[in-house]
Design goal:
Blueprint (H helix, E strand, L loop, with lengths): L3 E9 L3 E6 L2 E6 L2 H10 L5 E9 L8 E5 L2 H10 L7 H7 L4 H9 L3 H4 L7 H11 L12 H22 L4 H14 L6 H13 L1
Antiparallel strand pairs: 1-2, 1-4, 2-3, 4-5
Helix pairs in contact: 7-8, 8-9
Length: 204
């Protein structure tokens, strides 16, 4: 089973990407809210790491890989598809807004809010609440995605510029160092911390 992939973006489609990992191209479905972020912050051949929800059933013998930027969002997705009549494909289409907002709708029993999701009518919204109410409060506490992306992108770019323009690393090497450092320590929140983690990685 595949639970995590790290590679380079080969192609971005309307609802999926091709991630090239060690010469193998993996087709990974991406929820709309995250695909929009990937389009804004990355481009062809950029490094990308994804937590993977691997789905294969008798009805769906072909494996479906669904990608997320962190484990919490992947865990929420797997709870979401535990609701009757909501399979992986339907869930991917439905998750058009950040997961924190969907979790809040569920915890507040906001049927009207859930009905904004693509393909979710009143009956399905009621099933979602009945199944998941009381189980998704922690996901409602996820930080706002835009805030995280902007902060990480700012200090990541600063570190990348120094590695390339001042220290002489090739751009693809610098980006990989940064990706590796952020994977080792996802709590990094400043350029200073990122430099330290990049340095530690080079010592190994």
């Amino acid at each position: 089973m595949i639970s995590y992939l790290q590679g380079k973006i080969q192609r971005i489609y309307d609802d999926r990407i091709i991630l090239l990992v060690n010469g193998i191209g993996y087709e990974v479905l991406i929820p709309a809210y995250l695909l929009e972020e990937i389009r804004r912050t990355t481009k062809h051949d950029d490094a990308l790491s994804l937590y993977i929800s691997y789905n294969q059933t008798e009805r769906q013998p072909k494996p479906i890989l669904v990608g997320f930027k962190n484990e919490l969002e992947k865990d929420f997705f797997e709870l979401f598809i535990s609701v009757e009549d909501i399979g992986p494909q339907a869930a991917i289409r439905a998750i058009t807004i950040p997961i924190r907002e969907i979790a809040r709708y569920i915890e507040e029993k906001d049927i009207k809010g859930l009905r904004q999701l693509k393909g979710i009518g009143e009956r399905k919204a009621e099933k979602i609440v009945a199944t998941l109410k009381g189980r998704v409060a922690k996901y409602a506490l996820l930080p706002e995605k835009e805030e995280i992306v902007r902060t990480i992108r700012d200090f990541r770019k600063e570190v990348e510029d120094v590695l390339v323009n001042q220290l002489g690393h090739k751009i693809h090497e610098a980006r990989q160092m940064i990706v590796d450092a952020l994977e080792r320590n996802p709590k990094i929140s400043s350029s200073e911390e990122l430099f330290e983690e990049v340095y530690r990685g080079q010592k190994k």
